[in-house]
Amino acid sequence: MSEAGSSAVLWDGRLATKPDAEAFAFQASIKVDKRLVFDDIEGSRAHAAMLGRQGLLSAAAATALDAELASIAAEIRSGALAIDERAEDIHSFIEGVLTERLGDVGRSVHAGRSRNDQVALDIRLYLKRRIPELRDEINAVISALLDIAELHAESIMPGYTHLQRAQCLTLSFHLCAWAAALRRDVQRFDCALRRIDECPLGAGALAGSTLPLDREETSAALGFSRPSLNAMDSIADRDFALELAAVCAITQTHLSRFCEDIVLWSSEEFKFIDLAEAWSTGSSIMPQKKNPDFAELIRGKAGRTTGNMVTLFTLLKGLPYAYNKDLQEDKEALFDSLDTVASCLRMFRGMMKSACFNTERMAAACTSGFLEATDAAEYLVRKGLPFRKAHETAANLVRACIAAGHDSIARMSLDCLKLHSPLFEADVYALLEPAACVATRRLTGGTAPEEVRRQIAKLRAQTA
Ligand code: ARG
């Protein structure tokens, strides 16, 4: 493995003395931006080809640069060339290797561009590759959730508000709620991607270039929809990074909430879910423990992604136009958010695919807690009683049940029910059964099995 490019500093001509080693390392970013290496090379190839076509480089020089850049990429891929972390950043490293190998031809690649344009370009190219991968990961989680949902269209469980049993629903319905949230996350990534899709190349550090660069050509060659509108904006802007950090934070917050449900459901108190042993951990002291560490860690990592978003807000707030070295701090936060969400999506999918649901426990939890109280009130509404009176009647019924030691309104005799409202008839009992409470919520968005099957089909079609 050869080492190259480490000695290249692109800016020391003006300075009589250089920073010492520690200070140089402090301002270097290669450890973070080395992951942009292939994007940097791709950008340089497009730039060099354009310089050649515009007559700013000889055809021979442009060809030599292109071949050498292709070879550098291949060598890095194969491991024959190592990225030297003593270089300042990935842009300096690549230009240093080119110069070592090609002399003045290497020295000519930077005409009409700045590292400010390069970094803005490289991150965008990287994100154009990375976002579709993340989108696929989210869609894979949605598919996994829908696979489980399909098996549980009739699996009744309590729905909670304030973490108190509220109304009956199905596991399938609950999982579709998660999938719908993830579906919006996919849309948010897609939308952010559209705004990233502008080529900053040709910004020339700030105000454009005096050289006859062809910005349309490099933009098209690199697969962008258009060159950016304003040179200064294209190198000062990091709102694409901020937006993506926000989208990552939202996605991670969703995962975090799902995982909180999983942690609750896996407790002895709920016992709704049995996580696979491979997706659980033990305790170093309590031999009986089977802990939902994966769910907890995914939940906890929402702190990290929210923190990264706040880092970027703080970085940008009050930053004068245009490029300032502060912007170098953007990548660590952004990359960490992307990596965190990607790994959490994979972990969440694995954990969910291997989990078993205790449908008996879920159904049993619907038989107490008066989850049918809203159904009783709505029964009276259908019989013509104003809702507020129906609500009061059902509330009084619940109080009477509690006083009599009944755990459900259905335990009351019809005579007792009629004491509360003469509108009650024997047909109410069938409607107070958990299965009926679910089956009768047939309206769009409801929890009735046939409606949830429609939701699954719709989500599947959107995910395909
Ligand atoms: N490593 C730098 C960054 O990530 C590249 C741009 C440096 N530009 C400059 N004018 N110092 O932001």
- The helix count comes to 20
Largest sheet composition: 2 strands, parallel
Do you know the CATH topology of the largest domain? Fumarase C, Chain A, domain 2
The secondary structure category is: mainly alpha
CATH architectural arrangement of the largest domain: Up-down Bundle
Any ligands, ions or cofactors bound here, and which? arginine
If you compute it from the alpha carbons, what radius of gyration comes out, rounded to the nearest whole angstrom?
30 Å
CATH class of the largest domain: Mainly Alpha
How are strands sequenced across the largest beta sheet? 1-2
Write down the domain tally: 3
Shape summary: elongated
Kindly report the average pLDDT value: 95
Order of helices and strands: EHHHHEHHHEEHEHEHHEHHEHHHHHHH
Low-confidence stretches: none
End-to-end distance? 44 Å
Number of strands: 8
| CATH-level-4 superfamily name of the largest domain | Fumarase/aspartase (Central domain)
State the helicity in percent bands.
55-70%
Q: Report strand %.
A: 5-15%
